[in-house]
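ARCHIVE CARD
Drawer: 12
Card no.: 0347
Subject: one protein chain, sequence and derived structure
Cross-reference: see card 0346
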Amino acid sequence: MHPELFHIGNFTIYTYAFCIVIGTLVASVYTKWSAKKELGIVNLSNNFFYLIFIAGFVGGKLFFYLERPIYFFNNPKLMLDNFSGGFVFYGSFITIVPIVIWYLKKSKFPVLQMLDILAITVTIAHTIGRIGCFFGGCCYGKPTDSFIGMSFPKTNHITVHPSQLYEITGILSIMIVLFIIKKKKQFHGQLFLTYIILYAITRAFLELFRGDKRGFIIDGIISHSQFIGIILILSTLIFYKKLKINKTLKSKTNEKTIF
């Protein structure tokens, strides 16, 4: 693995942080291109992406600390190690969503349409970010004797499931599904809500292979990520049904108006 990409004097560029930055840049380019092509939005400010990056950083770190609050409370110096790893994706996601919605409403951009674009944006950034996890040696899996097993610096030469690669495969699969649904989208917001459900299911399954230390709601049974995923699936299904019903009602109203 290559957790450290290169050094500039005493300053270290970590592979994980580098991938996060690259993922953010690529995702930003896609978002601007799609917003212009699909919605005619040409004035999507860079401040929008700065807000997302900051919110994601703060939320991801905060949830990481909350996984083991007592440990970090007793070792506060470790909280200053902000660039070598240690982020929780759901923490970033949950922090980013309300800020994005606020910004879009403030800027008078179509919220649901933009969220559909951002659903694919997230898969781009997340995939590249997980590549950083792989090279950084974090988010590894449980021990395995399988031929696909790999060892990472923190696994002490024990071969484990490369769960980072599993997740990358899962996220790319979700991306493909979103592009397929996009061609026959039934209502605005469908891609975004579909993404949340598919990722929650994927992540809940992947948690069965994770072997790194992280928090559990029920020790050894339901992890923090699985618990958050369950809540997101249930709440998302409610919104999905509501938006679909609203779209159906609007279509019927338009038909009556025409005839």
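Annotation on reverse: The two ends are 66 Å apart (CA to CA). Helices lie at 15-39, 46-67, 69-74, 89-106, 111-136, 163-183, 190-206, 224-258.
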